[in-house]
Amino acid sequence: MDATLADRLMAAVAARRDELTDLAQALIRVPTLNPPGACYRDICALLDERLRAAGYATTLLRAEGAPADSDRHPRWNLIARAEGSGPGPCVHFNGHHDVVEVGHGWTVPPFAGVVAGNRLYGRGACDMKGGIAAAVIAAGAFRDLCPDFAGAVEISATADEESGGYGGVAWLAERGWFAPDRVQHVIIPEPLDKDRICLGHRGVWWAEIETQGRIAHGSMPFLGDSAVRHMGAVLAEMEATLLPLLEGRRTAMPVVPDGARRPTLNINSIHGGEPEQEEGYTGLPAPCVPDRCRIVIDRRFLIEEDLASVKAEVTALLERVKARRPSFSCEVRDLFEVHPVMAPPDAPVVTATARAVEQVLGRPPAFVASPGTYDQKHIDRIGRLKNCIAYGPGILTLAHQPDEWVGIDDMVQSAQVMALVLADLTGAMARTQD
């Protein structure tokens, strides 16, 4: 990598430190809560104005027909593209603009964008408005220093990643925006730590299991059939057979933290009997044998596991319970499924980012995979684009926490990495060496 251009790019990003902080603050101050999907148009408009002024051609897209899209809370997305001086690859930075609920325990206002020392606080600071700001600044510094680059630079701000990405990247990918003949390299600036490159993620299967019984008076439960007791038997069988089975498996994927190198099963929720009472009701429930009980399971599976086999293990478990309980009856309903994805370690975007991390930080990066999913799943599965990674500022464990923050130094250094990656992948770095 040409030392002169690399040094100039890093210096150009460092000189934009205040601009980077200001942009991240402005993004945090737009409360894009999901659910319900608030202020999506506002944050897209903020970025649209800035990027158009910087010479990008911008497109605002509402994901009409996507889950949760409505006239009250439309699912807005922004794609901005800057063409170079000639043909070449398109490098795309994709960031989701939605944030999760605030929750309790904050000591600073969650949407004020408070700066204290080297930290910028706010809901979405880490996940992932700091990453979006870093990508914008990196691309700006690169285009200023290398105006005759070959190819194109794209930046997108997309909806609903926190609820599956179906009103954002999935909708866009279905319409060809991430087709390999249009986009060649994708970096998603998720907060995986500035010295780590995330190659992909585990798979997930969410399902609802409902056991069925027969209602009766609570004083005569022998006349009914308790769905809650049936569900208790299901949970006991999970503890006795399925969970120990999962403990014995381990993936070759570099999933972090170490506990996620194994497949996992979480019981997201459970409810049996009468519906929850309306707020303000203080009386006792009616005395009934519950005839329905439901759980939602969250099964995270490994790239070495097959989804059909994952589902078959749960089916077999339920059959074992039925064999011991003659009146047992249940239904399983699929809610959500995502296959594992992983970019090849020698993919161009991986090797270019690794070189840039070492140049900026003075040490080689770690290669990791995420325990949970993010929008790479849609770029890989729908867009059919394998050359995609997650790399960005922020500490993963701070995401969704009270007093969420991102380090300003981390944003600067991540932006420096992104600028060097742009110079590498577009050939600008190589041309300076000729």
Keywords, please?
434 residues, alpha/beta, Aminopeptidase, Alpha-Beta Plaits, four-stranded antiparallel beta sheet, 34% helix, 23% strand, elongated
Structure, briefly:
With 434 residues, this protein is α/β, with parallel strands linked by helices.
Description:
The protein has 434 residues and is of the alpha/beta class. It has 2 domains: 3-201 and 340-433, Zn peptidases (Aminopeptidase); 203-275 and 284-338, Alpha-Beta Plaits, CATH 3.30.70. It has 11 helices and 16 strands. It has helices at residues 3-15, 17-28, 40-53, 125-145, 169-174, 227-247, 307-324, 348-361, 376-381, 408-425, 428-433; strands spanning 57-62, 76-83, 86-96, 115-116, 119-121, 150-158, 185-188, 196-201, 203-212, 264-272, 292-301, 330-338, 341-342, 366-370, 388-390, 405-407. The strands form 4 sheets. The protein has a 6-stranded mixed β-sheet with strand order 1-2-6-3-7-15. The longest helix is centred in the first third of the chain and has 21 residues, at 125-145. The mean pLDDT is 96.
